DNA sequence: CGGACTATACTTAGGGG
DNA sequence: ACCCCTAAGTATAGTCC
């Protein structure tokens, strides 16, 4: 009857192992949430469990990847600093390579986002059917865009230009993320087509990683 | 006197926040260790704390990155499967881009490894001064290389070639990871030079990411 | 198998040195 | 600041349904 202290060894019994896994997983995630809340610290937990269908990521895929990429950047910087002359070129190569895949990742992210947005616009999917974690990013981008848009409206207002309709602003914004203005429900005639064109254009962005332009080095 | 139930809100008081952080961080890491031990589940925890000098990674940088990359792979696969015709090209673009940075990452890993090995050989650093986590990778590569080498020795033995010394085998192996055979202590005359050449050659490997060869698509 | 329960083990807030 | 202590609060092993 008395619960005994569990030994820290692999639990052979399958069912009790799974039960323990479930209980403790939720325990850890709760603790992680608490630490994050109490101390406002970015924390990420990944559990690549064979018991769940997909690996558990907390608080979200994006957060986890963000932390990893930040860490990576730091690591590379540290290494770069420690370098001595003879090793510089090799480290730089690694650094540049890292930089380029980081850029590539960012571009992917944008493409994914645009796809979701396009789906929402075309009615293929609905915002309510979008994953919560994606929505967060989505929202973030929208807000960034709107801020940009408002800034531009301000500028045009000051110039007192007569041809500065909201739609024109949207298509001429310097910000590279293009999407509809959700708050204007009336002036959306032909808007769908414009968005489509914008997305099409954005897809022509070059995706090749730049030639790293490194020559063979003398040792 | 009586300890009260803490509210789940940010702790304003700096010192108690830090104290709580330290206690709870160690608590989480312990829990993570226990879950990993009891259930043999790959789990990774990252805490990008402003209180510690560097972000906390558990159990190790490699493990964390491995879990992330595995997850990424899975995610892409799932998405690819779910795709409908109209979206295929975009998804494929993401997929290919993902693939190429994965490849790039692998290449970086190899370059880093070679650098460590070269430093060890040249006496600039010692194996004992290498991080434990790096050593694990290091060892893995060495074993792979030796296995490859032995395979090749077998082949040459069967052909009864008279000029097949161990060194020749080493320089002609088809495996792209080149390093000395650590178990032969005697025949290492001029070996350092050979390794140097090999490393130099290996550095000429093309590192540009292939053109993804995607054309603008009709919607 | 998956919840719900509960006694016990563990964690940790708060306080003192 | 740090470590240590202890009681209060929490997690969870074992059990039942």
Automatic annotation (TrEMBL), chains A, B:
Top-level lineage group: Eukaryota
Domain MADS-box, residue spans: 1-47
Gene3D superfamilies attached to this UniProt entry: Transcription factor, MADS-box
Any one GO BP annotation for this protein: positive regulation of transcription by RNA polymerase II
Locations listed in the record: Nucleus
Keyword annotations of the record: DNA-binding, Nucleus, Transcription, Transcription regulation
CDD domains assigned: MADS_SRF_like
Molecular function GO labels: DNA-binding transcription factor activity, RNA polymerase II-specific; protein dimerization activity; RNA polymerase II cis-regulatory region sequence-specific DNA binding
UniProt xrefs under SUPFAM superfamilies: SRF-like (SSF55455)
Cellular component terms per the entry's GO annotation: nucleus
Transmembrane segments: none
PANTHER family to which the protein is assigned, alphabetical: MADS BOX PROTEIN, MADS-BOX PROTEIN AGL35
Name of protein: MADS-box domain-containing protein
Species this protein is from: Eutrema salsugineum (Saltwater cress)
């Amino acid at each position: 009857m008395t619960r005994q202290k569990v030994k820290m060894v692999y639990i052979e019994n399958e069912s009790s192992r799974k039960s323990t896994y479930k209980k403790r997983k939720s325990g850890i995630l709760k603790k992680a949430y608490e630490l994050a809340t109490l101390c406002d610290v970015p924390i990420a937990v990944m559990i690549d469990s064979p018991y769940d269908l997909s690996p558990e990521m907390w608080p979200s895929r994006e957060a986890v990847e963000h932390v990893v990429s930040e860490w990576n950047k730091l690591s590379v910087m540290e290494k770069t600093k420690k370098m001595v002359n003879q090793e510089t070129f090799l480290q730089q190569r690694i650094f540049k390579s890292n930089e380029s895949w980081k850029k590539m990742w960012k571009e992917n992210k944008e493409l994914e986002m645009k796809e979701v947005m396009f789906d929402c616009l075309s009615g293929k999917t609905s915002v309510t059917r979008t994953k919560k974690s994606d929505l967060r990013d989505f929202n973030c981008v929208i807000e960034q865009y709107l801020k940009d848009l408002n800034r531009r409206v301000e500028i045009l207002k000051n110039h007192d230009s007569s041809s500065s309709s909201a739609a024109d602003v949207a298509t001429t914004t310097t910000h590279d993320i293009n999407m509809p203005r959700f708050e204007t429900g009336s002036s959306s005639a032909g808007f769908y087509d414009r968005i489509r064109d914008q997305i099409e254009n954005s897809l022509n962005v070059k995706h090749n990683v730049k030639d790293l332009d490194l020559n063979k080095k003398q040792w």
